[in-house]
């Protein structure tokens, strides 16, 4: 029996008690429902089709289970599925997403493709860009790791997507919950760890081609990959190209505030875009020594909705914009993200040593017509350094190093590591949002996974981090006076003062896993942290497109969180149930607080938003249940729930921004057995229901609930002896008009994309 | 059987734990009400060298915060007007000496209704043409309502 009461006394709070007992209740139910049934097992082996259904879960049933639990019997359990192994061995809540899932659910951007996973949502901007939200936390609170290197874009910006080639992503490991002990600062809300394909296993030449089309925004694109291996050497290359037009919504007009905008054929004016990515790898794979050098570049160009730059209504030349749905006019953004990663590993006895060296550059430019806001001059001065349509530019360079030694002992799996990073951030353009800054950080960690018994495993981790930020000053290029001819030097305001801050952080984590046969139970409690970013420390300017004056606070402390995660998973021959609740407490969540105040001098008459810190309590859970009726039919139920509440400060009682509403998916999947032309066909229907979100915080709006139906189907088709995998998706089958609470354009009531039919073909050679 | 005992124990704990007393939170935006004597209105015309007598009615369910006024040129027809009806606009032109006004006002504490007034002098030497008159209103919780009006200065 597994009953661990982990008591986290945070505040006298009944919600916590509720949660703790709810968790206990579920754990006890799970363990109670564990009754080994010989009869069912026999039935499975008698019926060959059911046996096949079993193998879809990639496991072999323990041969004999009349007494339980006994160590000897566990040794007969053969676990061959990597995803399951990770779920059993990690005490955090981990989801492993495979290529097939991404292919079958492929959308315009990677995070959109992953939206089906419970606990995962996204902030979408247009049809080609999105950023992740894990259990309602996003921006700098979710870390994205690509091939072992922390992805550094402009995470703080709601309208900045994730610069990742989704065709290159082979496996994605999602940690739902804090993982600072392993990944460092920013992994406070969760981690999205994207990994490319493993090196080819056998000598020879191979590759793959994927082609696709999407009806809603006229997306055409594809990705091609070739690889070659000879003895210990391999090389690989990939090219991804995409081009799409304006996406369409099931409405003919929207209101940006009260400003009515007619949409031509339901097209979100100027939301078209392009993407061009390449990546290449060269590696040596020795018996003990391995080295891989990878270079990649992701380049995108995407328009912003022309009638609302940010959330600000704009008059546009509709004739010019509506001439073509595929052109990209002002305003638009261009991003180029370049990465160079060298990974070395050396296996020596019981040690596995790894060294990763990385360089990345995120070059972002935002283009828009000059409009004088606030005290800016009516006419853009000719002597300015930047062209009049370059509103903003961000240029970030990051150098990183990670070293790790894993030691595999009898019962212990030890890990020691260190990481270091240097960042250089420049800004440009006539608009100001964040100052230029440099930052360096280093950290050390130790992890021990201790196999107490074959059924019980303990994990403990400790990590120390140091970080230092140097913010550069920024002075306005225009005087903040109504009559510029009377301006003095003092009227050229400093939007950021030069300063330095140093931060230290010590975090710990303790976890336990209990894996009796077809049951997985886990608990993890730990702290996590996030260093404040330049914007939070030093912002002192107006975000004109949101009508707000954002004021940073140089005295902010690192954000700290304490979280209890539980996870339970029960697998029967026809059932797979999993439940992962969590309770999380932030002692000082960094929050941009809208105030009642307006500011003339620095804020140009806009509402003041102050960066402050508040206590926050969050809790929630994800649920999934899979029922395999027979070899052909399976049903699935997925659900997610998260609740957040600020427990102190001006917004006590309010939630956090971008809180995802409760939602669930009911799925039915049909996989007929066929031979010949079609192989492994599937048909799946998802019914998604999302509840109304009433927990809001200024400036959000209550978002009504909605229901959607999505269809997926596919099969491998044999053409001249070659297999071509074909996948078809119909998203938003009934062209439902709905609003997504966490969408960037939610505040201006822009509905989400209407019906979309997408087709993709993939061929491996 | 141990499970049932635990289950009952938990139900007792759950039952003994009453509903949390959650503070009531304000989720309503303040309102800018248009009355007969509100000024300016969408498409109002103001003469240079005169005084603009601003008057607007504000209301909030809990407590009003502050408001600000902003007049800037719209010679390029960039539009932040939040009114649906567009006015007769002059042709697009290049500004030479456009009027710019930014003013903030606090509303006395504890009010749910307030009449905002201000006297704004329109200088005689500024560029005539299409202007935006923006009213921003907040309440104590930080909800903000915008009203953007298109006006003409002759």
Automatic annotation (TrEMBL), chain B:
Q: Which InterPro entries match?
A: DUF4625 (IPR027829)
- What protein does this entry describe? DUF4625 domain-containing protein
Q: Which organism is it from?
A: Echinicola arenosa
